[in-house]
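Quick one, C-alpha cells below:
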C-alpha cells in the first residue's frame, strides 16, 4: 500500500516538473515569422492563435480540431462552422482548404478569411449577416487552414522567403527534401506527365501515392464524411496562387470530358465555375488548360467522391515568380474579400449543385436517391444473406462484353451488373443487391426511375428473370416495380427506361431499392445491368 501523503507529494512534484519543464516540442522554440512589412500575413503559430480566439469568441458555431499531423509533427488545424458544431444533422457539407503549397501565402489568408466572415457576420441583421446566418444554420462547413505548415515555416526562414513550395519530408534514397502534396493524391498518380518523378523537382510527386502525411490527412478526413454510403461534402474549393483562375477537373487530361466524368457533372462544373468567375473577375476553365498535373486534389475529390471540387488560383494574374507568390500584405483584405461572393455561392449551391443546369436536373438528381454508379455509394450485394446463385453476383463497375451483356453505361462508365466478368451469368438461383436506405417524401408523389437492360436466353423460364422492388429495413418487399420473365424467347439486352410512380401508402417510409436476378437452372442465360437509379419528388 502506498503512503497517501507521499503519493500526494509525488503527484505535486510531477505537476511542478511538468510546469517547470517545457513540453518536448518537435519544432524549434522561436518560430520563424513574417518580416515586418508583411506582418499582416499569418505564420503557423499566429494562425493557430487566431483561430483559437475566433473559436473561443463563437463557441456555439465554431469548433477547431486537427485532421492529422505533418511530417514535422505540426497539427493540420481545421474548423467546423455550423449551428450545432459536433452534431451530424445530415446537412450538406462544404470544404475549403488553403496552403497546399508553402509559398502561396495568400491562400492561407483566404481560408482564415472564410472563418472570420462566417463567424463574424453570423446573427447580424444586415443582408450579408442574414445570408451568412442562413448558410451556417443549414450547412456543415469545414475549413483546413494550412495543409503545408512545415513548408510555410521553412519558407519564412529565407530573406525574406525561400520560394519553397513542397512539404518537408525527406525523400528515401535521396538527399532531396520535399514532396509536392498536390501531386501526391491517389487518382491517376504520376500518370500523364503532369508531375515530376525526380526528387527535388518543384513538382516532385513523391515515391508513391499518399506517401505524404498531409495528403493522407486530407484523404482520411474526406473519406470520414461518407455516412450511410453517401458523401456529405458536396462542394469544395482548394485555394492556391496565382493566376486569377477558377479551375475544375480534370487536371490529368486535356480531354474536356473523358469517360470518368459524366456529361451532367461536366455541365454542372462549367456552370458553377463560370458563375464564380463572373463574381470575382477570374477566368474559368478546366484545370488542364492551365497546365497538365496529375495526382492532384480536385481530380481525386471528384473521381473518388463526386464532389464538385474547384481550384482557385488567386491574385495576381501574372508577373515574376516573387510577385506571383509574395504580394504585399496590403492586398490581403482586397483579394480575400474579392472571393466572398464565390464562397457564398458555393455554400448555397451545396444544397443541389445540379440546379445550376436547370430545374429538371435538380428534380432528377437531388431527390431522395440518386446513383450513377460512378463511385461506391453503399449498395450491398446479397444484403440478407439469402442469395442462392452460385455465379454471376451483382457488382458495380465497367461491364465486360459477354453473351447477353451490354458493355456500355447509360451515363459515365460504370453500372451495376450481374456477372461482371464476361461469360459468368447468373446461375443456380437468385442474386440480389440493395441500395442504402433513404426516406421517401412525407407528402406528395415520389417516382422511381432507372435505366436497365436484361438479357435472357430462350431457355429462361417464367421463374427466371429480373425484378425491381422497394424493401423495408426487415427486407420485406413493399412494392414490386418491374418484373421481366423468361418466356421461351431470346431477349437481346438493350437499354430501357423504367419510370414508376410510388404508391401513396409509402409516403414518409424508410425504404431501399432492391434488384434481383434469378436463374433457377444452370442452363439458361440471365444477365441484367442497371444505371442511373433515381427516386425523385413528383
Ligand atoms: Zn499551388
Amino acid at each position: 500500500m502506498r503512503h497517501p501523503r507521499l503519493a500526494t507529494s509525488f503527484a505535486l512534484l510531477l505537476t511542478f516538473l511538468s510546469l517547470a519543464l517545457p513540453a518536448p516540442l518537435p519544432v524549434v522554440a522561436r518560430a520563424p515569422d513574417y518580416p515586418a512589412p508583411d506582418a499582416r500575413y499569418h505564420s503557423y503559430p499566429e494562425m493557430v492563435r487566431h483561430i483559437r480566439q475566433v473559436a473561443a469568441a463563437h463557441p456555439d458555431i465554431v469548433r477547431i480540431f486537427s485532421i492529422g499531423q505533418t511530417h514535422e509533427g505540426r497539427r493540420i488545424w481545421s474548423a467546423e462552422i455550423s449551428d450545432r458544431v459536433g452534431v451530424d444533422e445530415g446537412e450538406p457539407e462544404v470544404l475549403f482548404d488553403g496552403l497546399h503549397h508553402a509559398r502561396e501565402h495568400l491562400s492561407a489568408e483566404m481560408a482564415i478569411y472564410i472563418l472570420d466572415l462566417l463567424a463574424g457576420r453570423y446573427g447580424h441583421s444586415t443582408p450579408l449577416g442574414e445570408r451568412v446566418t442562413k448558410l451556417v444554420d443549414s450547412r456543415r462547413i469545414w475549413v483546413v487552414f494550412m495543409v503545408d505548415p512545415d513548408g510555410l515555416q521553412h519558407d519564412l526562414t529565407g530573406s525574406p522567403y525561400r520560394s519553397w513550395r513542397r512539404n518537408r519530408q525527406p525523400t528515401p534514397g535521396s538527399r532531396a527534401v520535399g514532396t509536392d502534396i498536390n501531386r501526391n493524391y491517389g487518382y491517376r498518380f504520376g500518370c500523364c506527365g503532369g508531375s515530376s518523378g525526380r526528387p527535388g523537382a518543384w513538382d516532385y510527386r513523391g515515391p508513391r501515392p499518399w506517401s505524404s502525411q498531409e495528403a493522407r490527412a486530407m484523404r482520411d478526413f474526406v473519406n470520414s464524411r461518407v455516412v450511410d454510403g453517401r458523401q456529405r461534402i458536396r462542394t469544395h474549393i482548394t485555394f492556391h496562387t496565382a493566376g486569377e483562375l477558377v479551375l475544375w477537373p480534370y487536371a490529368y487530361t486535356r480531354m474536356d470530358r473523358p469517360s470518368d466524368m459524366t456529361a451532367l457533372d461536366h455541365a454542372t462544373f462549367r456552370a458553377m465555375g463560370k458563375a464564380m468567375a463572373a463574381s470575382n473577375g477570374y477566368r474559368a476553365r478546366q484545370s488542364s488548360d492551365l497546365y497538365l498535373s496529375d495526382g492532384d486534389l480536385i481530380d481525386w475529390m471528384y473521381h473518388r467522391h463526386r464532389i464538385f471540387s474547384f481550384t482557385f488560383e488567386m491574385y495576381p494574374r501574372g508577373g515574376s515568380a516573387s510577385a506571383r507568390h509574395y504580394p504585399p500584405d496590403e492586398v490581403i483584405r482586397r483579394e480575400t474579400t474579392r472571393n466572398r461572393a464565390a464562397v457564398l455561392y458555393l455554400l448555397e449551391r451545396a444544397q443541389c449543385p445540379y440546379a445550376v443546369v436547370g430545374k429538371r436536373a435538380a428534380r432528377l438528381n437531388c431527390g431522395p436517391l440518386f446513383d450513377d454508379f460512378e463511385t461506391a455509394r453503399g449498395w450491398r450485394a446479397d444484403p440478407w444473406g439469402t442469395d442462392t446463385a452460385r455465379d454471376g453476383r451483382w457488382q458495380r463497375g465497367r461491364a465486360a462484353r459477354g453473351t447477353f451483356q451490354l458493355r456500355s453505361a447509360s451515363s459515365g462508365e460504370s453500372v451495376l451488373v450481374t456477372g461482371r466478368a464476361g461469360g459468368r451469368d447468373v446461375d443456380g438461383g437468385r442474386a440480389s443487391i440493395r441500395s442504402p436506405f433513404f426516406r421517401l417524401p412525407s407528402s406528395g408523389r415520389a417516382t422511381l426511375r432507372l435505366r436497365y437492360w436484361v438479357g435472357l436466353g430462350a431457355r429462361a423460364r417464367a421463374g427466371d428473370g429480373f425484378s425491381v422492388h422497394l424493401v423495408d429495413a426487415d427486407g420485406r418487399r413493399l412494392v414490386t416495380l418491374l418484373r421481366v420473365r423468361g418466356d421461351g424467347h431470346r431477349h437481346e439486352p438493350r437499354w430501357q427506361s423504367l419510370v414508376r410512380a410510388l404508391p401513396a401508402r409509402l409516403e414518409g417510409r424508410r425504404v431501399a431499392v432492391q434488384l434481383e436476378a434469378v436463374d433457377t437452372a444452370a442452363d439458361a442465360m440471365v444477365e441484367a445491368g442497371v444505371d442511373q437509379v433515381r427516386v425523385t419528388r413528383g
